[in-house]
Amino acid sequence: MTRRYYTLAVEPMSQLATWARRMALFSLTAVIVSVIIVRSEWLDIGPAITTFVVALAPSIIAIALAIAALAVIWNDGLRGLGRAFAAIAIAGVLLAYPGYLAYKAYKLPWLYDITTDPIDPPRYEALARLRPREANPITYAGLYAAEQQRAAYPDIEPLDEDATPEVAFKAALAVITKRKWIIIDRRPPQAPRREGHIEAVARTLIMGLRDDVVVRVRGGNEGSRVDVRSSSRFGSFDFGSNAARIRSLMDDIDTAIGNEKPEPAVVLPPPAKKGKEPPQQQQPKRERERERDQPTATSKR
After folding, report:
1. Mind listing the pLDDT tens digit for each residue in 36-65?
2. Alpha helices in the chain (DSSP H)
3. Which residues contact 66 (CB under 8 A, 6 or more apart)?
4. Which of 261, 260, 259, 280 is nearest to 269 (CA)?
5. Distance between CA atoms of residues 67 and 87, nearest Å
């Protein structure tokens, strides 16, 4: 008896799906390398950002190839559905961050310098000497920028506290130190005229771009006032990062000041002199009135 073997026909793999996944993986590798280049500052800021943008281009090609592969798989019954969806997922994750930045660029005004006091913004002194020549100017843009800032970020305002300038300065310095920013200059406040001054360098989360921050602490009649200014060194648009940084910094400083407020001191009476009895402590007004209203008990015999 002759045995017959039946083999199942295996559909060929879609080459479009294969190349779509390859392009997505290549783009992922290129993006990781470009982020490392930007954060390590191996190149100038212009070429470094260009490498990141170029690294995203294969992701767009991968999505186009994956869509074409899905159409071919549907019509011809080829394999490769998983590879096509993998390419779309990887490329979508890579393009999500630039898409979010594009939405920010459409929604927010083009500002790179945000401050809580547009009329008299805190000034960069030490950082002004350290900034590269191709960086943005340290002079505040003026009234037009202030109006745009007020419309986009109405909550960016000075922080008024009833604590002393020394306490406010100490709290601000502790918050900046905790965030591991690079402190360039710090001058504690001194009465009667000298104001507290802190200059530091912060870095963005993903790209690690350097932004400059200055904190000013002034004394007032009822406490202290804290002003902050945050500026991007490069680019005409900060994607809202400076306003977010100031907002978060102000909240942390406010919390730190609340934690550092000293408890009210207990004033002890002066020691009594020899030969004289110490004066009796006067009862509170509410206790004296309560004793006066109670009837006096008389003994009957």
Report:
1. 998 888 888 888 889 999 999 999 999 999
2. 15-40, 45-76, 81-107, 126-130, 143-152, 165-178, 241-260, 285-293
3. 16, 17, 20, 21, 24, 84, 85, 87, 88, 91
4. 280
5. 10
The pLDDT of residue 298: 41
Cα gap 111→94, rounded to integer Å: 26
- Contact, 59 vs 91, CB < 8 A? yes
d(CA 79, CA 19): 13
Q: Taking the mean position of all CA atoms in its chain, how far away is CA 181? A: 12
Q: Write the DSSP string, 207-233.
A: S--EEEEEEEEEE-SSSEEEEEEEEES
Region of poorest pLDDT, from 92-101, 109-118, 184-193: 184-193
Rounded to two decimals, the pTM is 0.76
Are 202 and 245 within 8 A, CB to CB? yes
> Quick one: which of 116, 146, 104 has its CA closest to 214?
116
Measured distance CA(59)–CA(63) in Å, rounded? 6
Strand 159-161 with 182-187, pairing? unpaired
Please name the fold of domain 113-260. Answer: TATA-Binding Protein (3.30.310)
Whether residue 231 contacts residue 212, with contact meaning beta carbons closer than 8 Å, is answered with: yes
For 2-44, write each residue's pLDDT tens digit.
Answer: 565 544 556 788 999 999 999 999 999 999 999 999 888 888 8
Q: Which residues pair with 37 in a beta bridge?
A: none
